[in-house]
Specification:
- The chain is about 70% helix and about 0% strand.
- The chain has 8 helices and no strands.
- Helix 1 runs parallel beside helix 6, helix 2 runs parallel beside helix 5 and helix 5 packs antiparallel against helix 6.
- It is elongated, with a radius of gyration of 33 Å.
Length: about 150
C-alpha cells in the first residue's frame, strides 16, 4: 500500500514538473527494461505509433481518442498510473484553435436563405407535369405508329 502511494505521488510530481507524456512513458518503459518491440506486443500498438508517442509527435498519431487509448494501454503495460498519464496527455496535446462562425446580417440572411416550401412544391409540380405530358406524347406517338395512321 505504501509503495503504491509513493508511486502515485512520484507520478503526480512528474506531472507537476512539466515533463511531457512522451518523456513520462519512455522513462517508465526504460525503468521496466522493456523495448518498444516488447511493448508493442504487449499493447498491440504499432512500434511506430509508440515511438511517435514517446517523441510527442502527435501529428504522426491517429485521432486524439485513439491516442488516449494508446496512453492508457501503454501506462498499464509499464505499471504507470493511467490517470496521471491521461492528465499528462491532456496537457501535452496541442489545443485546437476555436473556429469563429461568420456573423450574418439578419436582413441579408432572410433574403438569401433557403427557398420557401411553396417554391419547392411548385418546382416539383411543374416537373411532374412536364414528365406526364412527355410520357403522354410518347405513348400516343407509339400507338399511332403501330396502327399505321402516321
Amino acid at each position: 500500500m505504501r509503495s503504491a502511494l509513493k508511486k502515485s505521488e512520484q507520478a503526480r510530481a512528474e506531472v507537476e514538473t512539466g515533463c511531457s507524456i512522451g518523456q513520462f512513458l519512455q522513462r517508465k518503459r526504460i525503468e521496466r527494461e522493456l523495448s518498444l518491440g516488447d511493448l508493442s506486443r504487449a499493447t498491440k500498438i504499432k512500434e511506430l505509433s509508440l515511438a511517435a508517442l514517446e517523441q510527442d509527435r502527435f501529428d504522426a498519431l491517429p485521432a486524439p481518442i485513439f491516442v488516449l487509448g494508446f496512453v492508457s494501454a501503454y501506462a498499464r503495460a509499464v505499471g504507470a498510473d493511467e490517470t496521471e498519464a491521461r492528465e499528462l496527455l491532456r496537457k501535452s496535446l496541442p489545443q485546437p484553435e476555436a473556429e469563429i462562425a461568420p456573423v450574418l446580417d439578419p436582413e441579408i440572411a432572410s433574403e438569401s436563405g433557403p427557398p420557401a416550401r411553396g417554391h419547392v412544391a411548385l418546382v416539383v409540380f411543374l416537373l411532374l407535369l412536364v414528365a406526364t405530358i412527355t410520357l403522354s406524347v410518347l405513348l400516343n406517338h407509339d400507338s399511332f405508329s403501330s396502327t399505321g395512321l402516321s
